[in-house]
């Protein structure tokens, strides 16, 4: 399908709605963790270990901010530093099992907080949401794979 004004508008609306939904869910859960914490853990879980600067870029924070964030995540045992096999002077950051568990718990809390808002969906509406999630997931997975290949990780 070529780009159309309707496609562009729908994608923009989807991004805005997703951000609003995520912010609402985070408020409802009462989580005190920074969104950057969850974004960082999610990036590490999805993409795998990476250097601090690359992680900062993926998480959309400055390198000094990421340094502080990683220090806190290491203290919480949610991430670990591992030797970079391509450069003995450098480290990569990797999510730990404890970090993956914390991320899954947070995601479960988010979805549980939203259930009351969507409990009255019809079967067709729920199927449409599931289809949307699958479409978006497949496109994002393709984009992640392409980015990894371009970066030499694929």
From TrEMBL:
It comes from the Bacteria. InterPro entries: HTH-type_Bedaq_tolerance, HTH_MarR-typ, WH-like_DNA-bd_sf, WH_DNA-bd_sf. PROSITE patterns: HTH_MARR_2 (PS50995). Pfam families: MarR. The keyword Methyltransferase does not apply. SUPFAM superfamilies: Winged helix' DNA-binding domain (SSF46785). Residues 4-138 form the HTH marR-type domain. This is DNA-binding MarR family transcriptional regulator. The keyword NADP does not apply. Transmembrane segments: none annotated. Gene3D superfamilies: Winged helix-like DNA-binding domain superfamily/Winged helix DNA-binding domain. GO terms for molecular function: DNA binding; DNA-binding transcription factor activity. Keywords: DNA-binding. It comes from Leifsonia soli.
């Amino acid at each position: 399908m070529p780009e159309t004004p309707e496609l562009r508008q729908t994608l923009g609306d989807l991004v805005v709605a997703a951000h609003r939904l995520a912010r609402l869910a985070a408020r409802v859960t009462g989580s005190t963790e920074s969104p950057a914490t969850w974004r960082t853990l999610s990036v590490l879980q999805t993409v795998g270990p990476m250097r601090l600067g690359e992680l900062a870029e993926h998480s959309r924070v400055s390198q000094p901010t990421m340094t502080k964030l990683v220090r806190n995540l290491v203290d919480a045992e949610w991430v670990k530093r591992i030797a970079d096999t391509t450069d003995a002077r450098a480290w990569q950051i990797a999510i730990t099992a404890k970090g993956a568990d914390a991320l899954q718990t947070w995601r479960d809390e988010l979805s549980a907080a939203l259930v009351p808002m969507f409990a009255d969906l019809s079967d067709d509406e729920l199927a449409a949401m599931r289809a949307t999630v699958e479409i978006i997931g497949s496109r994002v997975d393709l984009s992640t794979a392409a980015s990894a290949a371009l970066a030499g990780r694929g």
